[in-house]
Each structure stands twice: as C-alpha cells, then as structure tokens.
Design a protein that fits this description.
It contains four helices and seven strands. By secondary structure, the chain is of the alpha+beta class. Strand 4 and strand 5 form a beta hairpin. The protein folds into two domains: 41 residues; 136 residues, Protein Transport Mog1p, Chain A (3-Layer(aba) Sandwich), CATH 3.40.1000.
Amino acid sequence: MSEDRAVSTDVQPPPTRASRDRTGRDMLIALASLLVPILLILGLLRVFGGSDPVVVDTTAAVDDAKAAKLFPVVVPQGLSDGWKAVQATFRRTEDGTTGTLRLGYLSPTGGQVLLVESNEDLDTTFDQEVGADARQEGGVQVGEKPWTSWACSDGEWALTDAVLENGGSTDARLIRLTIVIGRAGHDELTALAASLA
C-alpha cells in the first residue's frame, strides 16, 4: 500500500529587490513626514518668541535682602533696556547672621552676568563664586570706586568690591562683598557695577 503524503506548499519566496527598496523608501517618506511638522513648529516658536528668555521681577528678593538688614544692599539703577533680569534669589544661613543676594542678567549683547552680594566669609564666598584659581588682573575704576578685576579659569571675568569695617586692618569685619561675574565684555561688567546704588 502506498501512502499519499501531503506536501506543504506554504513556503514563501524570498523578497524581491523591488519590495526591499520599497520598504526603505517608505521609511524615508515616514521620517520626512514627521520631520516637516517638527521644523515648522520650531520655526513658529522662534518667530513668535518661544526662545526669548524668561524675565523675572527682582523686587521680592531685593526686598527680602533689605528686610534682613545683614548688609547694605545695592541694586542696579538706570540700566539700558537691553539688560534683562533672569534670576533673583536671597538666601540666609540657618543662624540668620549672614546672607547672599544673587541677581542674574542677560546683557544687551547676550552675555550672562551675575551680581552677588554677601556678608558671608570673604574667602569662602570668593572661592565659591569667582574660584580659588582666579587670576587678578589689576584695579578698575568704576565711577569713583576702585574695583578689582579677575580672569576666571572657565573663561569668565569678574569684578569685586569688598566693603570692610575698620578699613583694611587685618581684623576688619566684612560688611559686604560685591561680585559682578560672567561671560560678557569688560564694558558690560563695568556698566553693571557702575549702576549699583
């Protein structure tokens, strides 16, 4: 007796070159259809100000610093319209005896500048804000006051002014350290420092 065996005919032929090309082409078309709306949205955001910095009101932080009465607070007065405040914080230490005011600005040319005022330890504050490896560049006359210019290791520049009790004696207590630091031209750093009152 002979047995009839069923032979499977479900074997698929290998894909042809045309079908392989169509799959790659379809993928490129799908990616392009996703890319076009994304580029359109990014363009609209740029045109309608989506990339503009968020401007903050510095009043609350400045008022908190003044109310704390830890040091005489000075703030920029009469800066041109090109300056934009983008950061404002005031922090006190736990014992309430020292504090630090930080005001961040974008300069008219797009530079980033930070104003720091503090009565915390002079060396510690300087090292944290300017850097222990900063190189002194000499004195700068800002209005009627001499400030010190510093070149920082990360490409920033800084101007510092320390107000001490009892002048420059070795046991002088820090009243306020003022630092203007950032990635901006010397003229902009000086303009911000000169506006402080």
